[in-house]
Amino acid sequence: MTEEAAGLRFWPATDVGRVRDHNEDSFLVDKKLGLFVVCDGMGGHAAGEVASSLAARTVREALAAERDALDEFEQGHGGTTRKDVLRLMEASVQQACSTVHNEGVKDEGKRGMGTTLDALLILGSRGFIAHVGDARIYLYRQGSVHQLTEDHSLINELLKRGRLTREQIDKVQYKNAVTRAVGVYESVEVDVFDFDVLPGDRFLLCSDGLHGYLEEAEIRRLFEEVPEENLTPHLIDLANERGGKDNITAIVVRVPDDESGVDKLSREVNLKLDILHKMPLFRFVTFQELVRILNITSVRPFKKDQSVVEEGDEGDELFVVLTGKVKIHSGGTTITELGPGQHFGEMALVDKAPRSATVTATEDSKLLAIKRRDFFDMIRKDHDVAVKLLWSFLGVLAQRLRNTSRELGQAREALAAEDLTVELLGESTKVEDLAGLVAIEMTDPEMSMDDLADTKDEEP
């Protein structure tokens, strides 16, 4: 089955599997909205089937009621923002949760029923995801597969806490237990986030009856080798061949390619992801977490000789050079120059100390900026990301402290060798021309004292 919606192509299918006697999975596609939903119901006696179908329909109806706002966002006019769309996504799932729960309260035979839910909404070049449970959404982009959702399951919680290894999973009695579900209670905690959608992106939405039999590397290979129109039935056949112990549902979605090749948005998004991924501060985060970090960044253009920050000003942003070059200087002394992938001012993310140097663009440049307020909002909401970022931050600071201590020791030895008088252990000292040697503003962790010394106008 092949359909098209606003240029999107999609192939949905569901199967009862080889063990179950009825199918509690549901899927829904709204071509006009660009909405794709997969639900995996639970409850028995057909209650799971009711829960999954009711939840999917309720999400669609809630979003369809806000079609004008969604159209405003997609067309780029009106007051609808990406945060407004995220609120609508979350509200639609909460409405589904309440509806399923109330249905269970009314009918004794359906009491306690619930469902997982994954919803993908594509509005132009922006994607929005709402996720509850252990169904998954994968992104296939430029030869790589990324799992965009994190399972709300007992297995995943045990893995994260180090109480279980992947080799022990088969021994767990309640492998299919989920820690969040739509409809079991009146409300539920929903993961919602948005991201850039690029030409040629492909998505796989699937229930655990499919992804339980597949590894990411295999999904990548299948995207590469199997024609898209055959991929969904091929995936279902694979799951059945490997046991088919659960219902199996999948939707493959393809975003049309840009006719001119890699477009401007693709280049910029790929550049930002690549540069952030290589930074020590973000080295431990997953692709999904990196996408969320990208959402709190902004791109700032600077003309040649334009000031980025001024010495003495209060700093509240980390800057990363995307394109071009900047120089860090104090007074008339240039401390260092930074190019693409290098960053400065990360201490501004954790304190309000004044900038200790001025930064100026030496050519037309684009810089990625992260504000302190947005950084803290993110780590407050996501404890896993918070732990990774703060641990990396401590590592960066520890390395720089070691570098600074070593380089100050080398500087003392060099100054002593030139018969300069140094104040040490309370003795009177006279130190000349140290300003060009030590940069208080943290810049490139690889920058050495020798690099700084090269910037001096003359020997002392």
Strand and helix map with partners:
Layout: E1 3-5, E2 8-15, E3 25-30, E4 35-42, H1 47-64, H2 67-75, H3 82-106, E5 114-123, E6 126-132, E7 136-141, E8 144-147, H4 154-160, E9 191-196, E10 202-206, H5 208-211, H6 216-225, H7 228-241, E11 248-254, H8 264-278, H9 287-294, E12 297-302, E13 307-309, E14 317-323, E15 326-330, E16 333-338, E17 343-344, E18 358-361, E19 365-371, H10 372-381, H11 383-417, H12 449-453
Helix pairs in contact: 1-3, 10-11
Question: What key phrases describe this protein's structure?
Answer:
alpha+beta; Phosphatase 2c, domain 1; 460 residues; Jelly Rolls; 19 strands; 12 helices; disordered C terminus
Low-confidence stretches: 424-460
Q: Identify the overall geometry.
A: elongated
Mean pLDDT over the residues: 85
Count structural domains: 2
Spatially, the strands of the biggest sheet line up as: 1-2-11-10-7-8
What is the terminal separation in angstroms? Answer: 78 Å
Helix and strand content put the structural class at alpha+beta
Quote the CATH topology of the largest domain: Phosphatase 2c, domain 1
Number of distinct helices:
12
Describe it for me?
The protein has about 450 residues and is α+β, with helices and mostly antiparallel strands. The protein folds into two domains: about 260 residues, Phosphatase 2c, domain 1 (4-Layer Sandwich), CATH 3.60.40; about 200 residues, Jelly Rolls, CATH 2.60.120.10. Helix content is about 35%, strand content about 25%. The chain is built from twelve helices and 19 strands. A six-stranded antiparallel β-sheet has the order 1-2-11-10-7-8. α1 packs antiparallel against α3 and α10 packs across α11. It is elongated and about 85 Å long. The N and C termini lie far apart (about 80 Å). The C terminus is likely disordered.
